[in-house]
Amino acid sequence: MNKLRHASLAGAAITVMALTAACGGGGSSAKDDYGKAPAGSSSKIGEGYGSGSAGSYGSGGSSQTQAKNAPAKEMTVREAPGIGSVVADSTGMTLYRFDKDTAKPPASMCDGDCAKAWPPVPAGDATAASGIGAAVGEVERSDGTKQLTLAGWPVYRYAKDTAPGDTKGQGVGGTWSAFAPDGKKAGGGKQGEAQGEKQGGAQGDKPNAQAPGVSVADNPALGKIVVDGQGRTLYRFNKDSAWPMKFACTGTCLDTWKPAEPVDKSAVRGVPDKLISTVTRPDGTKQLAVDCWPVYWFTGDKKPGDTAGQGKQGLWFAVNDQGKKVTSAPQG
């Protein structure tokens, strides 16, 4: 009996150690942030959505599964509130591009679980209606299937978009954007544009060491606060939890508070490496964590240095250079 109890306690201790390492001690490699999946884990176009973990993305049956993996046919331009002109397939579903992919040469970095959340659009039977200036092409994926491209960028749908006109994928992870008619990112986003076009497929998921993904800014009101590579203030949410890990910002919350994109530790400046990690959200996407707390940027912050999200609803707070939430102005 004692042996059994000791074995149970030992097993529990190992589990706790493993979970702790996964958050605070594990690395935050950009290759894990929906980059190339290990050999053998590739997801073919036409498979995956609606089975396994993909069920959490709103799949309702075989007809929806087929629609998510169907050819785009005639692509058209639609107006999306708050975003502008976006490209949609023949059924009105929004089409997306991934910053970690590359356009010159075309290459997809979204395999495995990523391809379940973001079903690749098959090449073939695709045409562009008037108003779409981006060239239509194709790229061979790691599993040998052909994927549609626009202006060289691989094309995807988002599994959480369930109705024509949905744009729930816009800004997810800081790396996904709807296509604009010229093949660029809808909404005016330019981050990653030049990098993705210049780097080759094997290097397209590596961060630019000259542009830190996480750094520290001196804010006159709040002191030293953590910001992302665009200078946006990063916030944590009191209703989230670091231990046990819990994500309370879901659904419509994500329209206002965008999960920060994970970064490689080589792209961190001013924050101890041990505080930086990557966590997996309930929908399978990856998010930056500081001191094990998921962090977000606020859509109400219009320029670098803005802190309009500070203290919102008494729940949202900037993070200092030691990973703690900032609840008051610095002393002295």
Automatic annotation (TrEMBL):
User: Which key words are in the record?
Assistant: Signal
Q: Show the ranges annotated as biased composition (Gly residues).
A: 52-61
**Top-rank taxon:** Bacteria
Q: Segment Disordered: which positions?
A: 52-83, 163-217
Keyword Cytoplasm included in the entry's annotation: no
Gene Ontology process terms (BP): alkane catabolic process
Q: Which InterPro entries match?
A: Lipoprotein_repeat, SCO0930-like
Q: Which NCBIfam families match?
A: SCO0930_lipo
Q: What is the official name of this protein in its record?
A: Lipoprotein
Native source species: Streptomyces klenkii
